[in-house]
């Protein structure tokens, strides 16, 4: 199995994900950027946070190609925008592309289900009102409020770019990615090193 991580510059987030997965498991892994400067070194913050966590890793940035997309079994992006860009450029990759977080945490299943249920309740009340039934406005408002509350609680699947941030920002990004990678290892039942 081949896992491919994708971010913007291929100098911060996707190299961290690649380094972590390569250190923890025997799976075939690579990383690419969507707007990378070909040959660029990893950012200083990335080098430092990897070294501080005992990870020996080196990488030169490069851009995602059709060959990479074809060779990968699973393409995991750092944000929903990366996912959309890949799906636009390489429509054949749709079924094997997701954000790292949503895929690793199995798309936050419980939270999504609660939100779907809340939409159904709201839709039903709305339909009743449209078809002339006497639905109290407060009831309609309350079911809409429930949707907003659940949406606000839904964790974002995006991992923001630490580029230009200080060591604390890089460490936070590293921790977020490491937690997601640990989930990924469990979900895919990968062989640990
Ligand atoms: N591509 C630009 C900007 C950039 C760099 C890194 C970056 O972070 P990441 O590698 O996590 O996408 C985002 C954008 C550069 O190399 O300077």
UniProtKB/TrEMBL annotation:
Residues 1-187 form the Phosphotyrosine protein phosphatase I domain. The keyword Transmembrane helix does not apply. It comes from the Bacteria. Gene3D superfamilies: 3.40.50.2300. The keyword Hydrolase applies. The lineage of its organism: Bacteria, Bacillati, Bacillota, Bacilli, Bacillales. Pfam families: LMWPc (PF01451). Keywords: Hydrolase, Protein phosphatase. The active site is at 7 (nucleophile), 13 (nucleophile). One of its GO terms (molecular function) is protein tyrosine phosphatase activity. Belongs to the low molecular weight phosphotyrosine protein phosphatase family. This is Protein-tyrosine phosphatase. InterPro entries: LMW_PTPase (IPR050438), Ptyr_pPase (IPR023485), Ptyr_pPase_sf (IPR036196), Tyr_phospatase_low_mol_wt (IPR017867).
